[in-house]
Design goal:
CATH class of one domain: Alpha Beta
CATH architecture of one domain: 2-Layer Sandwich
Number of strands: 8
Helix content: 25-40%
Oligomer: single chain
Shape: elongated
Low-confidence stretches: 1-43, 222-228
Structural class: alpha+beta
CATH topology of one domain: Alpha-Beta Plaits
Length: about 250
């Protein structure tokens, strides 16, 4: 009986002590200073301000042509197909080099040897083997592209394949710099308009992020098989746009 009464007294003392501590303001750590009155929610600085995306575009005339071409030969045996394809490809490569295409600018894109079959009266018949050898050639003087296409078509004969020709920019760095300036000016104009519409005062940028620049390739022709032609092949690179975006966050004064 006396032991039970002692246990009850101890419990009452412990509960009283916890109540006093719980009511004490010194028991809880102080909230970090945020420059504003805290109401139990910490506002992230990244969620404030004016967020805009600016875009810059620069029109450029391409200075490089990328020619995809090669040979395709079908013969009864692999050896025959390889031999004729190698001979035709040597003639094609010779014309590329004669057109001032550097060896470093010629790269093998595809080389395949495949059997050619057909079905006849529920039987599969082997017709022979097809060898395909495709390369990409970077033509740095676009004005010579038409002459190179014609020379390659004659050299490769019936085996030649000209898949496509595309145009791009070899050194786009300077154009990126110009596009970047335009993108920042576009972002500033958008932010100022939003500030006027919202009747707020725009502050300094607090965050800037640049997107990935984009230099598209323009494709002009696609030919399944090239044959000698009596007149020169016209090649026109046209224009393309170098694009770049920036995301900017402005503070609100």
């Amino acid at each position: 009986m006396r032991r039970g009464l002692l246990v009850v007294i101890c419990l009452v003392l412990i509960i009283s002590a916890l109540g006093v501590i719980g009511c004490s303001p010194d028991f809880y750590p102080a909230a970090p200073e945020t420059g504003a009155k805290s109401q139990g929610i910490i506002t992230s600085q990244q969620a404030t301000g004016v967020w805009v995306t600016g875009e810059g575009k620069v029109s450029v005339v391409p200075d490089v042509a990328i020619l995809s071409l090669g040979v395709e030969v079908q013969k009864a045996t692999v050896a025959e197909a390889q031999g004729e394809a190698a001979k035709a490809m040597e003639a094609v490569l010779a014309e590329l080099k004669a057109g001032d295409v550097a060896e470093k600018d010629i790269k093998t894109q595809q080389y395949t040897i495949t059997p050619v079959r057909k079905w006849h009266e529920d039987k599969e018949i082997l017709l022979g083997y097809r060898v395909t050898n495709i390369v990409t050639a970077k033509i740095r003087v676009i004005g010579t592209a038409g002459d190179i296409v014609d020379a390659v078509a004659i050299a490769g004969g019936d085996s030649v394949r000209i898949n496509s020709i595309s145009f791009t920019i070899d050194e786009p760095t300077a154009y990126y710099a110009e596009a970047r300036e335009k993108a920042m000016a576009d972002a500033q104009a958008k932010a100022e308009q939003l500030a006027d519409l919202a009747d707020i005062i725009l502050g300094d940028p607090t965050y800037i992020s640049e997107g990935i620049g984009y230099v598209p390739r323009t494709y002009e022709v696609r030919v399944e098989a090239a044959v000698p032609v009596p007149t020169p092949t016209p090649i026109s690179p046209g224009e393309m746009e170098v694009r770049l975006t920036v995301q900017v966050v402005y503070e609100i004064d």
